[in-house]
Amino acid sequence: MYPLRRNRRLRTNEAIRSLVRETVITPNDFLVPLFVVEGKGVKDEIASMPNYFRYSLDLLEKEVKELWGLGLKAVLLFAKVPDHLKDNKGTEALNPNGLMQRAVKTVKNACPDMLVMTDIALDPYSSVGHDGIVQNGMIINDESAEVLAKMALTHAQAGADFVAPSDMNDGRTLKIRELLEQEGFINTGIMAYTAKYASSFYGPFRDALDSAPVDLVDVPKDKKTYQMDFGNRIEAVRETLIDIEEGADIVMVKPGISYLDILRDIKNEVDVPVAVYQVSGEYAMIKAAAEKGWLNHDQIMLETTIAFKRAGADIITSYFAKDVVKLLG
Ligand SMILES: NCC(=O)CCC(=O)O
Ligand SMILES: [Mg+2]
């Protein structure tokens, strides 16, 4: 009999398609990145990230309540640090009363059940724009890991539920885990960026936080000595397994859409939840193409979101989180 199978029967109409759909998105899938700044009443649109904002703490409060109302229950905080507080050692990162530490408390006060994750890396605090301390033209690994652990402790003390090291220095997950245990923060989790690639997709984010490497002699121009080479695949699994051994509760692949193979590899290899980060450049590309009328914004947004989950993401970190949830209704 011709044809042997009529697979199109399962695609006849939306009712049957939705009945057999393998991957669906809910608000529970998302982790929402949020940028915070000093000041009052500040809601600053980020030039290269249309419709995405930096909030002062008073407006952050409003924003997290809105997210909670939409069913979004987890946020990832990034602080934009004023230039005069930046140095090569990331001193301000350890300030118990710093912007990040106050932001954690603000979210917890506004929305006690909101899960709060914090970014752990020195770049927003670094006068040279690197994720660790620079010495003789190099990012010095072990000293950087020490500072990052201390930074993580101040976030835990402020009330963060999870800390998220995004720096890619070796051993930082273990340093953080050891210090948290030692100080009694046994329930503070670690979401480690285990496979973070040296990517040009981070451009708009560096505008958002003014955190790009500076152009100076003796300062590396890029992050290729610590973030991963985008030609590599097996290395991502190796990095991830090490971070899990060191104590990561959740692991992350970053960027997202160009790294779905890595996401699937890692999902197949590990027994902890896997997160993905649809980064600023991915967001900017979709916004720009939609603005020009070249792509359908909402459809592309949904398609990329589903692609992450289909590829194995348990957690999707995305600037589109709110828009997707609103669209799904
Ligand atoms: N640690 C955060 C980043 O490095 C960048 C994220 C983005 O480009 O959205
Ligand atoms: Mg590593």
UniProtKB/TrEMBL annotation:
<feature type="active site" description="Schiff-base intermediate with substrate">
    <location>
        <position position="254"/>
    </location>
</feature>
<comment type="subunit">
    <text>Homooctamer.</text>
</comment>
<keyword id="KW-0479">Metal-binding</keyword>
<keyword id="KW-0460">Magnesium</keyword>
<comment type="pathway">
    <text>Porphyrin-containing compound metabolism; protoporphyrin-IX biosynthesis; coproporphyrinogen-III from 5-aminolevulinate: step 1/4.</text>
</comment>
<dbReference type="GO" id="GO:0008270">
    <property type="term" value="F:zinc ion binding"/>
</dbReference>
<dbReference type="GO" id="GO:0005829">
    <property type="term" value="C:cytosol"/>
</dbReference>
<feature type="active site" description="Schiff-base intermediate with substrate">
    <location>
        <position position="196"/>
    </location>
</feature>
<feature type="binding site">
    <location>
        <position position="239"/>
    </location>
    <ligand>
        <name>Mg(2+)</name>
    </ligand>
</feature>
<dbReference type="GO" id="GO:0006783">
    <property type="term" value="P:heme biosynthetic process"/>
</dbReference>
<dbReference type="InterPro" id="IPR001731">
    <property type="entry name" value="ALAD"/>
</dbReference>
<keyword id="KW-0627">Porphyrin biosynthesis</keyword>
<dbReference type="Pfam" id="PF00490">
    <property type="entry name" value="ALAD"/>
</dbReference>
<keyword id="KW-0350">Heme biosynthesis</keyword>
<dbReference type="InterPro" id="IPR013785">
    <property type="entry name" value="Aldolase_TIM"/>
</dbReference>
<dbReference type="GO" id="GO:0004655">
    <property type="term" value="F:porphobilinogen synthase activity"/>
</dbReference>
<dbReference type="InterPro" id="IPR030656">
    <property type="entry name" value="ALAD_AS"/>
</dbReference>
<keyword id="KW-0456">Lyase</keyword>
<comment type="similarity">
    <text>Belongs to the ALAD family.</text>
</comment>
<protein>
    <recommendedName>
        <fullName>Delta-aminolevulinic acid dehydratase</fullName>
        <ecNumber>4.2.1.24</ecNumber>
    </recommendedName>
</protein>
